[in-house]
Amino acid sequence: MRVQSLTLVAASAALLAPTAFPAGPLPPRPGQQSPARTATEAGPRPREAFAPEALSRRGPIVEAGARPREASVPEALARLRPEREAGSRSGVRPVPRSHTGTGPADGTGPADGTRPADGTRQGPVRAADLLARTRDCDPVSHGRYRSDAGTRADIPVCGTRDAVFWKADLDIDCDGRRGERCNSRTDPHFTAATAYTRSDGGPLDAEKLPYVVVPQPSDIWDHRADGVRGGSVVALVHGDRVGYAVVGDIGPRDIIGEASYAAAEALGVPADPSGGGVASGVTYIVFKDSETEPIEDTAATERTGERLARAFIDGD
């Protein structure tokens, strides 16, 4: 049962670091496959504030009366290299909003997610790796939360050096900007506001923006004390799916386990606000002192989330 979220308003601002791509490989010999290519990215700078993202080539000039010199094999290879490099850069695929954890989505590295000889992992973060990292709980909350009103309080918020996480149900939050699927007709608890806002000051769009709801600060847990605020980046895991979202709204002080319409869709969870969601089996991992700004930049959230999730599963 979904509970109406509180309507706090805050603003947000941040920096995004550009994505850096590696240089392309040398041309392969006949019968030899090209090496796999990867891309590394940098995430936005964390903030402390509490807040609701071919040049054409000319051929050689030949003097009149002179016979053109035939290029040697090394020179011919050198001329081909720029074309191959351009092709390698254009072939890099972006990280999807959500993916299954069965293997790389970009065609790099081993399908089982194991480490190559250089010690790095290839492909998107797998659901199984995130679930293994959150198997043990070191509670940071002083009490436990309910999944819905009237249920038993048995959900702790757990913590590591880099993140906090909890395992709960997923109720659908449709608050914020009115749309075809999120409005007072489809959702009896609908409110046209969210605790955190877009860069233009308007409420978040639950139909388009994957976001999660955190409980109101209380003696059970004050999320701000663990570096969680509006725009903090979240990894969501359900079954073999991994999705990325931001903290976008605040809910009741004693209930946990709620995410936006768009977040539910990305995880393959029924998103109907009046009867959707799932009763259990969703893991929420919020990365401390992270932030997407502007909060509505979903591409930046996906890049940052993938990077932070990788660091999380590789951490101590």
| Structural class based on helices, strands and sheet pairing | alpha+beta
If you average the pLDDT, what whole number results?
75
Cα(first) to Cα(last) distance is 37 Å
- Beta-strand percentage range: 15-25%
Number of extended strands: 8
Helix % is 10-25%
Tell me the number of helical segments per DSSP (H or I, 4 or more residues long). 4
Shape: globular
Poorly predicted regions are: 6-97, 101-119
Order of helices and strands: HEHEEEEEEHEH
Rg on CA atoms, Å: 24 Å
Characterise the protein shown here.
By secondary structure, the protein is an alpha+beta fold. Helices cover 15% and strands 16% of the residues. Strands 1, 2, 3, 4, 5, 6, 7 and 8 form an eight-stranded mixed sheet that branches.
